[in-house]
Amino acid sequence: MPRMLDVSDDVRAEIGDEEADRLLAGGDAPGSYDCTSCRTPGDSEQERTSTVLFVGEETAVLAFAHATCIPSQVVPVSEEQLQGAVRSITGEDAAPRTPAPDTAPTGPAPGNERQATLGITCGLVLIEGDLRPALVVEPDGPIARPGSAGLTDDFLPLLMEQGFQPVKDMNRLPTLNPGWSALLAMGKLHAVLQPGSAGNQAAWWQAHQPLAVSDGWRAAANKAQTVLMYAAPAGTIGHQPREDLMRQALEEAAAQDALVAAAMPLAGT
To answer: Which of 141, 186, 210, 222 could be 85's S-S partner, Cβ–Cβ 3.0 to 4.6 Å?
Structure first.
């Protein structure tokens, strides 16, 4: 039976016309599925469904999503992340963590070749009457400028050189930072991407393991298609157990001129 599938030109180019036509005719496409975005059931025989192709270095995985959640698209991910997603789909992966906000370490320092540990907290912040999905980034120690022998913390100056702006008022939306995006794949946060060479994007922060986010955070991100990222020096925000405490810490950091932010589009699902 023909499926109500949307196959974008990018997905068709990756899988080929023959496979795309077979999907549209009902072959190799499931009737029912779990949406790769909202993780709730869908039915390609009853509702419009997007084909989402996750592409790694050596592997590609075709997934399905409600067309009302995300459009059909190609989502580039690392091979390690893609293999993790496959394990998750087949039930071999560990159950996702449920506490909110979620945190995860790792990632390169901005503009620095040495590894630094960045804490990432996912939470919702109320701005202009709407709950906005936010990432709060805080390193576990000073971030030195490349080539510097001193211990000066240049974390915020380095980010401002990359287009992030100081936050003066937490009730105002940060401005969009071109070329940056947040990669959500298989319902989990995989990376924060920055402009790379030749018009491509490179990972500024990448999770060792895909980071689980709350249903509310994911729903807000899919609705806005935009994620806010706030960054503060080590020891400024801390790991706050509740979102109201996180908001209070952000406001205190802004009052001390110790907070920068930017808005970035949601990449993937």
So the answer is: 186
